[in-house]
Specification:
Blueprint: H1 3-18, H2 41-48, H3 54-66, H4 70-83, H5 89-102, H6 106-119, H7 124-136, H8 140-153, H9 158-170, H10 174-187, H11 192-204, H12 208-221, H13 226-238, H14 242-249, H15 255-268, H16 272-285, H17 291-307
Helix pairs in contact: 1-8, 3-4, 4-5, 5-6, 5-7, 6-7, 7-8, 7-9, 8-9, 9-10, 9-11, 10-11, 11-12, 11-13, 12-13, 13-14, 13-15, 14-15, 15-16, 15-17, 16-17
Length: 308
């Protein structure tokens, strides 16, 4: 199927779902605007009963968002929807979806993005947000369809490329994943997240040396990026460079956990001697609570028995 035809199908589907794109009813319920707010500001503002216009509510919302007060921003955006004439509703709903995404409320994020797309099926901020949320929720087919439609329409969206890279990794299509990550990096070349994702994809493909290059590039932009240090430890351990692995792991975790991680990786590589050494060190350093190392030792004993 051509990219153009894919985009036409996705958009057509959204139009059908939208029906006449009517504005949601202003009543409490699943499809109401008020259903998108779950914070505490409503009680305060309702008690005040202050007169305010939709434009003023939007100004308040933007200012609150700049100040990092997402609860007030969310309340004001919902109030703007309730008071507004509908001209900016799709954009406001997309912003609400972004707030819920960053706040860890996936159900409300999906609801806001979906409501935005019912009003404007061509709102690609909302479509991108929905697709990325679907990646998190393991709805891979829908995510791929939506994110593909986004980059067909607007190719320079690095988040959509990143999402498609993650999906390609899930499908073991590492060449496609690398292509999406590199396209994303052309747009956002200073992103440690993208270099980390590219590196992990290279690790999955077996290109461990290049993975380390990508991971260290990520650290050049953010040396406190914990996931990168964890991944560097993973690669070193898989290479049998256990001291290097320990140094990397120790940047983000305690020694017992580091020893357990290395011991586990030794175990799955059938390096049973080093597996036992590291696991017993983990238990020695933390005998009172380090259950994982004991579990891995039990697994090691079973594997050794099978190998006899």
């Amino acid at each position: 199927m051509s990219q153009k035809r894919l985009l036409m199908i996705v958009i057509a589907t959204m139009v059908l779902l939208a029906g006449c794109a009517a504005k949601p009813a202003k009543v409490d319920g699943e499809n109401s605007y008020t259903s998108l707010y779950d914070g505490e500001m409503g009680v305060v503002h309702n008690a005040a009963s202050d007169e305010i216009t939709a434009d003023e509510a939007l100004v308040h919302a933007h200012q609150a968002l700049l100040e990092g007060d997402t609860d007030q921003a969310l309340f004001e955006y919902v109030r703007a929807l309730e008071l507004g004439n509908g001209d900016e509703d799709a954009e406001i709903l997309a912003k609400i979806g972004d707030i819920h995404t960053s706040s860890g409320h996936p159900f409300l994020a999906v609801r806001a993005y979906s409501m935005s797309l019912k009003l404007d099926p061509y709102h690609f901020d909302a479509l991108e947000g929905l697709g990325l949320m679907q990646v998190r929720q393991h709805q891979y087919d829908q995510a791929k369809e939506n994110l593909s439609a986004v980059i067909i329409a607007e190719p320079r969206r690095w988040r959509a490329h990143n999402g498609l890279g993650i999906l390609a990794d899930f499908e073991n299509d590492y060449a496609m994943a690398a292509d999406h990550y590199r396209q994303a990096l052309e747009i956002y070349p200073s992103s440690p997240q993208l270099y980390n994702n590219l590196g992990y994809s290279e690790y999955l493909s077996g290109n461990w040396g290049q993975a380390l290059v990508s991971f260290h590039t990520a650290l050049g932009y953010d040396r406190t990026f914990n996931s990168v240090w964890h991944n560097i430890g993973l690669v070193h351990a898989r290479q049998g460079r256990y001291e290097d692995a320990e140094r990397a792991y120790r940047r983000v975790m305690g020694r017992p956990e580091a020893y357990n991680n290395i011991g586990y990786l030794c175990l799955i590589q059938k390096d049973y001697e080093n597996a036992e050494t590291y696991l017993r060190q983990a238990i020695k350093l933390s005998p009172s609570y380090y259950v994982k190392a004991n579990e891995n030792l039990e697994r090691l004993a079973k594997l050794r028995n099978r190998a006899k």
